[in-house]
Amino acid sequence: MTTTCDSETTTNLRFLVGRQLVRVVAQRYPGYLAYSKVILTFSDNSSILVDLECRTISPKFEVCVVRARTMNAQVNLSDWDCFSFADFNLGTVYVIRRDEWIEPNTFSDASLVGRNGVEQRFGNIGIETMSDHVVTVDAGLSFLSLTGAELRLDADTFPLVFQLRYVVASSLLPDGSKFNFNVVPVSG
Question: How far is Cα 4 from Cα 78, in angstroms, rounded to an integer?
């Protein structure tokens, strides 16, 4: 079984290719290192809101599917982080899929999880699991620039929040060794 993003999301994501991303604002999830909503703004001042939609597969088994909607209204940015981009021309948009399943709890103290508790897990597509009921889920997005930089939004293990990562293309220069300034004296 595959749980995919809806047709409106697919249509909105197709129109992003070839556009210049200038800003990303992400709403912080309270007390957690993740984001509940992400707004992508492009050079023509159009914006796309990306969030997650919760879908119930069976009792005690819910998955979060990526959703993208066009957006016209401004938002109050008091609890949002802002990231600006100078040269992020969008070359490719990928939907990130993963397998999710539930297994009986493995905790030694069953009173902590209640009666017939289960643990939800996820992993790469095709991974061997103890469960017969595995669902493939559209759980994130990867935006690749024409220069190779990647902006990635992955559904986190906590419901309805993203982990946001920005990775710049690797350089032709060697990595070198990293040293902590507090440990290695810097001579001047």
Answer: 32
